[in-house]
Amino acid sequence: MTRCDELNRWLDEGRPAEGASAARAHAATCPRCGAAVAEFDAIERALARPAPALPDGAAFSARVMEQVAAAPPLAIVEPKRVPWWLAVLAEPGFSVAAAAAVVLIATPAAIRLDATQSVGLPASIAVQSVGVKLGAALAGWFDPSAAAEHLSPVSRLSILVGFTPLLVWAGLWMFGAVERLLRNRPARRG
Amino acid sequence: MEAPRGPGADRPLHLDEPELLARCRAGESAAFAVLVERYRDRAYGLAVRIVRSAPDAEEVAQDAFVSAWRSLGAFRGDAAFATWLYRIVWRKALDRVERLRTRGRREVAVDDPARVEAESALHSPGAAGGLGGGAGGVTADDASRLERLLATLSELSRAVVTLYYYEDRSVSDVAAALGIPEGTVKTHLFRARAALRAGWGRDERMPNEEIGHDAM
User: Fold this and answer.
1) What residue in A sits closest to B63 (Cα-Cα)?
2) Which pLDDT belongs to residue B147?
3) Are the beta carbons of B25 and A74 separated by less than 8 Å?
């Protein structure tokens, strides 16, 4: 990239402090870039003018207040109070915890195995052991061959039910993200 | 709730914004009249940049204030009143542009050189109801040229440029007012500057030719 390209980019970025000294030094030696900087000065001066004012502010205010007087009374909207249990259910963390609980409850064999293996072991190792089994159980759900060993169809259904709120939450979030993306897309020129 | 009172002489002009908003929420229309007086030019300034027509911009600003009054109960005060108002103006202005576009009027209005010149005259320093004293060193010719170039930008870019430059708002304020991410604001500013610079240079090289219509 040439110095001239860099200067043009610097101008389009609104003349940030970073790179300002190098750009000015180049503009001082390059007539074309010097002219570009002078042009940008003129544009920014023109942009610094105050925005257009209303031709007749008093008449405008009178018209607004006339409509306000005829408008329905203000509705004081109190923030909706969500029941605590609904707020807890809406938390993605709850969904994960519920799914994990379902796995633990629905796989008694794995837990029993952990319990017997964990006897006499330090607490950290026991927890780790339960975690490994939980991971294996979850992995088993996705792997049909392992699932046959670890999880019954009832267990898999339980996990699905446990994960449903999480999936719904993720779906709504994605829908909102796409909607925001489409709404913010620059308008097409007619 | 107190019934809305008409715009009387007993306006609480001395009150700060939170107090005015509290009174508005209690139904005191005199307090709202103060807010209208404070923000009417800014609301109109944004609207006129988007809809490119003084009468339409007045209607947009008027609708925005009435909407603001009606929905003040829902205004939680997380953002400044101006930011919230800009957002209402922006939506109303976009609706108006869409409606004008549907009716096929807007293209005629924007492309009409006489109309653009009339807009520029309205904005020229010293014009009645116009900008008042302009920034030093800005000629009427420069202002007129800028108006023509701004007309070639998209509505969103014009709104971003208006709030950032004319209203001296930060990038985050502009993002909050228009309901878009800060990155999008920066992108529009970047593109707008590039387009304005390109058009400005072209205009200087061809001072007697109309510019900007190719981009519409």
Assistant:
1) A64
2) 85
3) yes
